[in-house]
Amino acid sequence: KRAAEIEDESGSSPLRFVISDVLKRGLSDKSIFESIKTLQLFRTGLRSGYALRRLIRCNDPFALQLFLCAMDQIPTEDNGEDVHDLPTPILDLNLESISGYTLLELLVEYNTIEASEIFFQLKTKLMLESEGKKRIELTSKNDDSAVIASFFLLEKVTEETWQKTANRAKLSNIAKLQEWGEGHGRLFGKYLIDRRKEPEYLSENCVIIFGSELVEFKGSKIEQDIALKFLADDMIFENELKNRKTIVKATQGASASSENHVLLVTAAFTNKLKLANLETSKGKVKYQQDLCDEVANYKHINIDVKKNENVQTPVSHVLVMKCGQDLHDFISRRTIAGINFMEVLNATISIAKSLQFLNETCNIMHGNVKARNFVRMGTQFDYAAIDLSKAGDIEKTEIAVGQTISGYLPPEHAAKVYNQETRKNTNMQTIGLAEQTLLIANAQYDMWCFGVMAYQLCTGKQLFDMDNHEQVEIGELKRIQDCTLGDVQLKLGLISKDPKWIPLRLMLELVLQPNPCDRPKSWKHVLDLLQMSDLEIQEVRIEALLRKTAKTNERIVSDISTGETGLVKDLEISFHSSPLETH
Known about the structure:
This protein is α+β, with helices and mostly antiparallel strands. The protein has helices spanning 14-25, 32-43, 50-55, 61-70, 103-109, 113-127, 159-169, 175-183, 234-250, 291-296, 327-333, 341-361, 411-426, 433-436, 443-459, 474-481, 485-492, 502-511, 523-530, 534-562, 566-570, 579-582, and strands at 90-91, 134-139, 147-153, 191-192, 201-202, 206-217, 220-231, 265-270, 279-280, 283-284, 286-287, 317-322, 325-326, 364-365, 374-376, 383-385, 392-393.
């Protein structure tokens, strides 16, 4: 049997002889079952499927059934119902019919249009089978009711078998097979996701997963890293896309590039037909009716269960973006906060420029500034903003109170949320003044949040006590509401006393003003402080020293005039001297 495919000088071989004999005599010879058994014996000794593929063509129904019979793992003279009076084979498509090849791989390796059509028809039928022991019938291309071949399926086809087949299909000359092979095992046939890897981020609103996409690069195909954001809420999905469209429109014809400051959406999918008219930076949103079914294949992609509920929210939308490490992850994995001055300074400047771009070029408030929402692009210190679900037009959009209690909220927003939570917990009917006051989108809102984030970069500690999702308890929320400049200055004392940290400290004192009216009117003031020269830093130090000296002198004069001696004794100044001499 191992010599069955070896040909002599005339091109004849035992395998060719048996196949040709069966095809020639057809059903007229009663010894056909013996010939099929011989063919099955030869098949087990073949080194590849080449000889078999060359001798049996899939465009002939009789030859196709003969091919299936040759693959039979449980050969008998009568396996039940027959097609064209040939036996119906019993096949386990997960087993290798020929060394190194399953039947599905052999069909793909045929590399012909006819064989590929048989493969795709078979694939469609097999995908519908949840278990084995089913009769699978292949029908005519022109007539669905005309059965041209059949077999009994012993076991359900495993994912491993499909993947092996897909790997061979990638190398096919048939475009449809190649496309299927490259897309198999990928979300929407495009995005490769590691099913064993935990999500990068998970909340009650979204799941973020890192994956890759096969793209053309210099004549070849490479895997490009991407981030996929899975959403359930229609409004969040709509806001993400509409705000980015506004940003792109605002920068058309301008020197500033939106891609340097905001991570754009390259593709989007939804199962809501009404949202399919939205646009990404690369074109229209794709309507994906079976989106829920596609996502269901990935058990780790589930929107977090809502509090006190025992159900999971189905995913309805997907956003695709470039992949980058967010600032929160960067801080937690590397010891930079409060230590590596240059990395802290460069990251702070980059994020300030992104917010300046959003607030002043695009007239949009980000509304959710925090370390998780800025991603590092490449190996440089450039950070781009993500998550525009809470963004709004400056001086137009009302800021919603929301259900989350974030530690990044500025005092004016914290007061509204605190009032709302207090009413809820005490069943109060009266709406407080803070809750009645409308909050309209403004740049100063983003400045406070930026300050809270920058404080962590400068000290390695949170300005307010937050959990892993940046949420705070109701008591801490009241502390944010009642925060004073003195409270902020006290916490700024944790920043390094090294003179080079002075610009960061001055900047924080500027943006962390509890009263929004006292915060800078423009991001230029913030960036001017961050980009101070060494000479300017020295001047600031001298001014601070002069102010400190003046205060000390005032206290000395005050002590002498009131008869207090403590400070004078500390300075070893004699009480016999006159007040003027002492001053």
